[in-house]
Amino acid sequence: MFSKILIANRGEIACRIIQTAHRMGIRCVAVYSDADANAHHVAMADEAFHIGPAPSSESYLRGEKIIEVAKQSGAQAIHPGYGFLSENTDFAEACEANNLVFIGPPSSAIAAMGSKSAAKAIMEKAGVPLVPGYHGDDQSPETLRAEAEKCGFPLLLKAVAGGGGKGMRVVENIGEFDDALAAARREAKNAFGNPDMLIERYLTQPRHVEIQVFCDQSGKGVYLAERDCSVQRRHQKVLEEAPAPGLSEETRKAMGEAAVKAAQAINYVGAGTVEFLYDVDGSFFFMEMNTRLQVEHPVTEMVTGQDLVEWQLKVAWGEPLPLEQSQVKTRGHALEARIYAEDPDQDFLPATGNLRYLNTPDESAHVRVDTGVIEGDDISIHYDPMIAKLIVWDETRDQAINRMVQALEHYRIAGVKTNIRFLHALADSQPFREADLTTGFIDSHRELLFPKSKLDIHKALVLAAGFVLEERKSTEVISTDPWSPFGRRNSWRLNSEYAQPLQLQVGDDIHELKILERDDNYQVFVNGSVYGLTVKLDDDYLQAVINGHRISIHGNLHNDRLVLFYEGDTFQCTLYRENYVSEDMAADGGLNAPMNGAIVAVQARVGDAVTAGQTLVIMEAMKMEHAIKAPADGVVSGIFFSEGEQVSEGAELIAIEVADENTEEAG
Fold first, then answer.
1. Which of 603, 648, 651, 649 is nearest to 630 (CA)?
2. N or C: lower Cβ tally within 10 Å for the chain?
3. Percent of the chain predicted with pLDDT > 90
């Protein structure tokens, strides 16, 4: 077995690989960019080497630099993880040329599946069913438009070298085609260096079911159950599970055998995933093959009891597969939720910030957390916004869902926006519990997935007041005289009771509270109502009784910003001071950056007349494009950034002189 390997990756997958390698007695070499000098994967590794600036194109995508480090460190093999160089044919070939084992498939297999159009041709020859569409070499807009009309609508434009939802667009009709093609090509060019597209019929109610396959160097292959990855946003997976609910044993077997056949058709070695679209009538179609370890591989590990990274290392060393197909068994049900730094309420825009407060659920045989960050780390614009993967297992799907809901309630983050509340609503929703799964699940159930807060606003304000006051007490310097009234933490005043004021800002609203404090309780006056409050704060855990209702929450107060966590929900407010009056970042007619990112295109000029909803700027953040649209009809009066520039969230991009609706046309 290898004695030392290099991990050509970062974040949670680098940490995940190091854990297994160390358990097997293998030393690990990490690489890091400027942004990751203090990253968790660097601390976990036995040694680490700096490879360049923060942008991945200048660090984690520098194959020649990584190979140089591997040779310098004495590593015998390179594990690419997923993303970055994991499916890069040139890098796999360069490893071989430098006598380094690439812990993945041969470069020929990567090349065969790297082009989605070529992959479909190979699968067609191998007898694997395909979705109707076009995957030819002629990439002229005229040909693609003609093939789109032939295929029919709705259809899916997909980058031939793509993955992770990048370079992908759903097109509902021919009128949308040209703009969608231009955007998908541009995104594919930026992400993969290849703008070529394929066209597929877009199935309206499909499920995304994928098979984990493994092949050794002798050509023997097995499949390790299937995963359902139907719940997606922007064509990126959000929640995965194994096994896929509702599949017959015959379908499972047929899919698994088709997946192994697909892998063997390209002389595959190592871990791979064959992805299928599963239609309502029980038919399934080959979609693509990912020639690497998948993000969602832990759910397969949880139901099979196998360590897939260990399998990768053994197969790369030349050992046979650890199990025959007849020996592969599954038990129970597993779910994985991807914890992202993003804002679900703003169409899942990526978010950045500091993880100033981070609490994860306790790990056990039922709960697993795969992450590459710790409290205090920054989520930057340079890499994928995934914070962690939360994986749960139990005997049945219902029990596993309950585990997931509970674990999400124990996952608490402050300092950066996350999708935890959204994931909690999703996992706990009745349609999900009933396995009513399609790739359009999120759009079909938006009202359920974006619920109102569980905390009544008045109770939330009372709890916030209790947390703030108790937090202040815990840091106050008090008199050492136990009999002195000045040493009592109750805002004591001679011959009077003092109701201290507290102003809390929630969004744009400022709430005026008055708190009358006694030794063991408070009276809180909010908007004409009075609440009796008894509280006890232990670190971040607040136990409260409000008018006889006992309730427990967690919270984090930092620089006058308070976040309360309650049953998967959050309540955020700020201790208001006059100098906190928020600046109107979006003045009438203004167009502001909704996130940190780069300007990809400016589609207007000063003096242009624009209409509400018209795309004026395209931004890129974390490798995804986002269209910034005009908020109203008007005329562009100023443009403040140009293509290629980096902008911060809230920065004004374009000024628009809004048309006056009351102005009558002359004549």
1. 603
2. C
3. 69
